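Re: the request from the purification team.
They wanted to know what the chain is likely to look like in 3D before they choose a buffer screen. I agreed to run a prediction and write the result into the notebook, where they can find it.
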Amino acid sequence: MEGNLLEIQHLTSGIEGKDILKDLSLNIKKGEIHVLMGPNGAGKSTLGYTLMGSPEYSVKAGKILFDGKDITASSADERAKAGMFLSFQDPLEVPGVSLESFIRTSMQQTRGQKIKLLSFQKELQSCMELLNMNKSYAERDLNVGFSGGEKKKSEILQLLMLKPKFAILDETDSGLDVDAVRTVSKGIEEYQKSVGGSLLIITHSTKILESLKVDYAHILVKGSLVHTGDSSLIEEINREGFEKFIPQSVKDAERREKLAAAAKAAMDAVKMNAANGGLN
């Protein structure tokens, strides 16, 4: 657990010219589990996509260091080969590519060597059994026709097979029933035990965390980390919500935005009324 695997230094990033993350700094050591929580629109998914190098998101300032190397300008595939992994909140469907083929190709690309078919299939079957996945899903097109729960299991299956050094799980538990959450949580626990990888878990729920030893929990509000604590912070949020952690400056800004929006709506209504000859 010594040494930082991931270092985020004063990161400012966003999409389409809009800054979403603002001067964000965070260190994750090897083997640590960090949980990221916050209100809707806080920028949690933006952080995941930025760390993974999505071309839609641009870094305006700051650095991202992974395993001692500056990857700020690295492409997504370069980051994957370095040992990073992102589990999508809404996994894409890929017609024409089977789940089995996708995973094997991904393993060969990240490891830079061919994967023997028989040993691969044996490991795949074992991981699918762990996740209570029917073996027929291996032959089906990636996520096509999968239920929400099966898509999330597919993501965790990829995590178990690829064995990355660092995994970002973006609301992997969203939309899952209790049994599916328990199964997915079991898969994450197995990854942590067998690989000893680091995790950044973005979640609104805590069910997925019950079997994991969380090292740190963070609260993100309007693109800024406003509070960090140990696992007890998660239970505090469960009891009391995020309200006490939202800075007054953010509350004041939101209030001004609402007042401005209300004033604009009222003015638009007046203009519409005037344009209609005052008939409304």
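For the purification team: The first helix runs from residue 44 to 52.
Please add any questions underneath this entry.
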